[in-house]
Design brief:
By secondary structure, this protein is mainly alpha-helical. It has 15 helices and seven strands.
Length: 400
């Protein structure tokens, strides 16, 4: 027994050590960009300011944090439980509109303030504290996850994907056309809901243009989502999800309740979408229906797949990479290429061509993602390992 203890505990210690290193790197990156933009960059020379504003603008860095939250939420559904969701943008939209409804003067006929921070002259409407809005946004999207997941999660593979695709199309269209629902303006249609309240954190008011502080807020949301995802994966429910993902029949034979476990993944994954939607609405100061389209769901799914399904830090890397490329990477790389070769290629116009090419190359040469989870790496490389073992056995036989 004494000899087997180190072998059993070593993987756990290795995982904890790896998570700690990644966490330190994440916190260091957040602290670097906050301090840089809050204190150092305003005092820097013009070339230094131009470099960071072009290549690592704080707006893009803040949006990357929202993408991380969204990708980790979808990772619970796709990476942990193995369920294909093509309509995840719907939860983003629902969370965003919760913020629009509860942190603005939109419902002008009401006047409800629950520790909110309305702007002077706009005290009408509903004004809840940001912490409460985050909780309600997560609860609201979880309820919708339950409503959608309840009757549909008995479906499998392509059928489930089609149902989630329909859900992802219905909700944004409802928001886009919700200016007149039975005579009531629910979403303000294509104009959206702007003018969200300033964020009040323990007496410190963060205004619309206080970008470093807002970057810090969304970074805290991303950090909380990372911590939650890791703890959830290592818990009993997370292990049940992984068992279903790897072999549903074997999991059911071992006593894992399939429908209830899948149901939990869909509801909890929806919470990540709702929190991401609230965070994005706070970041941009409003919520607008035309931003929630089907392409967003595909991009979030690609972040999960390319980063490494089931691996929290892999998904973080995938979300960061793709979000940076989509926001400013293509523009800056395109400028470098055009300046170097004297061309006039509009690289952003080829965004989806390059995006598709990157996906094809990933599927050909690294299907398991940038930082794959150990189980998925074994499954993806199973044929390769079998071939190597076969060659080894044949070599041994020939040598004898």
């Amino acid at each position: 027994m004494a000899n087997t203890a180190p072998a059993n505990t070593a993987p756990a210690h290795t995982a904890v050590s790896g998570n700690r290193k990644w966490a330190i790197g994440f916190i260091s990156a957040v602290a670097f960009f906050f301090i840089l933009n809050k204190f150092l960059l305003p005092l820097a020379t013009t070339p230094v300011q131009k470099f960071f504003n072009n290549w690592f603008s704080l707006t893009s860095m803040a949006e990357i944090m929202i993408w991380i939250v969204m990708a980790l939420g979808l990772n619970i559904i796709v990476g942990y439980a193995g369920l294909l969701d093509l309509g995840y943008v719907a939860f983003w939209a629902l969370g965003g509109y919760v913020a629009g409804w509860l942190m603005s003067p939109f419902f002008s006929s009401l006047q409800l303030n629950f520790f909110g921070n309305p702007r002077p002259g706009f005290e009408f409407g509903i004004h809840f504290h940001v912490f409460l809005v985050l909780i309600l946004g997560g609860v609201f999207t979880a309820i919708w996850g339950i409503i959608i997941g309840g009757p549909t999660l008995r479906l499998k593979s392509d059928y489930l994907a089609l149902v989630t695709l329909g859900f992802g199309e219905i909700i944004p269209q409802f928001m886009l056309n919700g200016a007149d629902i039975a005579g009531h303006n629910v979403t303000n249609g294509a104009q959206g809901i702007g003018g969200l309240d300033d964020v009040n954190l323990f007496g410190y008011v963060i205004g619309t243009f206080a970008l470093p502080e807002k970057f810090l807020i969304v970074s805290l949301l991303a950090g909380a989502m990372i911590f939650f995802s890791i703890r959830l994966r290592d818990g009993r429910l997370g292990r049940a999800w992984l068992a279903i993902r790897e072999d549903e029949l074997a999991a059911s034979m071992m006593g894992v309740p399939l429908w209830r476990t899948k149901f939990a993944s869909y509801a909890i994954g929806a919470v990540g979408g709702g929190i991401g939607g609230v965070g994005f609405a706070i970041l941009v100061g409003g919520v607008y229906a035309d931003r929630f389209n089907f392409v967003i769901s595909i991009i979030i799914l690609a972040m999960v797949v390319m980063g490494g399904m089931g691996n929290v830090w892999g998904v973080v890397v995938g979300a960061t990479t793709l979000a940076w490329i989509n926001s400013i990477g293509l523009i800056q790389i395109g400028d470098l290429v055009n300046n170097a070769f004297g061309t006039k290629i509009n690289f952003p116009s080829y965004q989806f061509l390059l995006f598709g090419l990157l996906l094809v190359l990933m599927m050909l040469f690294r299907r398991e993602g940038f930082i794959p989870e150990a189980r998925i790496r074994m499954v993806m490389n199973e044929e390769k390992l079998e071939d190597e073992e076969k060659i080894t056995d044949e070599t041994k036989i020939a040598s004898h």
